[in-house]
Amino acid sequence: MTRAAGPSDAGAKAMRWVVRFFSAEWSGALLAVVLMAISIEVFTAGKPFFHPSNLLTIFNNAAALGIVAAGMTLVILTAGIDLSVGSLMGMSAALVGYVASYWGFDPVLSILFGIAMGCAVGLLHGSLVAQFGMPAFIVTLAGLSIWRGTGHLSTGAQATPKLDTVFNYFGRFNPFSPIRQAYKADTLPDWLNWLGALVDSQWLDWLRTFQMSTVILFSFYIVLAILMSNTKLGLYVYAIGSNEKGSRQAGINVKLYKILAYVFCSFCAAFAAILFLGRAPYAKSDYGMMWELDAIAAVVIGGTSLFGGRGSIWGTLLGVLLLKLINNGLTLAQLNTFWQMIVTGLIILIAVGLDIVRQNKNPLRVRQMLIAASAALAFFAFVTPGSKVVSSWIVHTEHQATVALQEELAPQFKQPAPKQMQRLQTPEALQAYAHAAQASVLPALLFGALSLAAVILVFLAVPIFIYGLIAAYGVALVLAVTLGLGTVAPFLVLGIVLLAGSMVVDPLFRRAASLR
């Protein structure tokens, strides 16, 4: 007689599903993307986040970085690193624009030339690392400077003339545009009129934001995921990253596959340059600045271990999307680009920390790292109002110092240097800064206190204090929405989830152990 499934069986199945989900490298990135997206939908004004046109805009903007990060994934899976991808992307864009504009190369030939140059750079990097045993960090750090300099030399650090429309097919070109144009001109075959009518009816709503960059991005990841799952390249890359010595003893040509990983990474950087040119009207050698950090951040956020051997291509795509969501949120909050660079650095630190504790499988370390991540999210919320307070203080200090210097030099009939005089502000500007700072003081103090309290709780993970901090995050969330700071609400929501998750780490570990 078959025993009916009871509540304990259902609980065991649910626990196994939870354990299986969080054992996947990409699980954290997926959860973060979903929570951030829902929070943005709920707490921010304007067009709904899940509107197709908004999603397509995010995918279009993420396409070039997504391709670079895909190539970086293979290198990191081999326990390597490539710090030159941003510079190589800029050099490739500059060289493609240069030969197309000044040497009269056909656009297609120019594109092939740029990709070939990228592959040649990857072959050089891979050979120096695999064949000559040079550290990947040193080789690609040198490349970061060499290839950026080469790009500047090729164009004189100036923008090229406007590029041929052929490049649009890698970026802004809309595959539905010819169908709509033919339908409106009544030149579409009768059997396709239904499609033309559908495209025309949906054009203004969302189809106008559909671009080739999105098609290329997802097609590229699908093909790469298939290759990584069904070819020797994928199998051997994981094996080399897990145990290079063992892979060599098993008969794998370690040098060859490490070289191939670097060649593919550089190919991706060059190909991303073409996608970027498909959305930019001209070529410049300063494209891709700091993209190496963004690519590494996306790969690590997606669950790929910097120590090699563990990770997934789809996790990287989720990491790219999460990074774009965070950066877009900070941009909507009108946050200075330099603050965004600080946030990116913190994201890398948190992602690497999570990777380390995941490998240790120590519940205490996992709990501490989750609380630390919540502290970072509270800091992300702090930088929006905090930057206004700091900026106001700096502006007033510079103004007063310049006025004092002006008075000091007046008896000598001298004036401060022009750069110093630029620090002088009008009374109206000073008042505007003061009002902005006054409105931001309360949320800045609250978010800063939350971040500091979470840092303290990393070392004193007392449950009652964690519950209190969760409540404080909730109060801060309500305050943020009330004061019109909806753009920081997703960070606070994710922080609450992480703090709540830290409370169930020990029970989950014990239950998972009992089910083995």
Account of the 3D structure:
It is a single chain. The chain is mainly alpha-helical. It folds into 2 domains: 31-173 and 211-360, ABC transporter involved in vitamin B12 uptake, BtuC, CATH 1.10.3470; 376-514, no CATH class. Helices cover 75% and strands 0% of the residues. It contains 21 helices and no strands. It has helices at residues 7-23, 27-43, 52-77, 85-102, 107-131, 136-155, 177-184, 193-202, 212-230, 232-242, 244-249, 254-277, 291-301, 313-332, 337-360, 363-409, 418-421, 427-459, 463-482, 489-503, 505-514. α9 packs across α10. The model has no long low-confidence stretch (mean pLDDT 88).
Provide key terms for this protein.
516 residues, ABC transporter involved in vitamin B12 uptake, BtuC, mainly alpha, 2 domains
* Unreliably modeled segments: none
Number of domains: 2
At CATH level 3, the topology of the largest domain is ABC transporter involved in vitamin B12 uptake, BtuC
Oligomerization: single chain
Share in helix: over 70%
The general outline is globular
Query: Total strand count, please?
Result: 0
CATH class bucket of the largest domain: Mainly Alpha
How confident is the prediction overall: mean pLDDT? 88
Tell me the strand percentage band.
under 5%
Distance between the termini: 26 Å
Tally of individual helices:
21
SSE order, one letter for each helix or strand: HHHHHHHHHHHHHHHHHHHHH
Backbone CA Rg: 26 Å
CATH architecture of the largest domain, please? Orthogonal Bundle
- Secondary structure class reads mainly alpha
Largest sheet: none
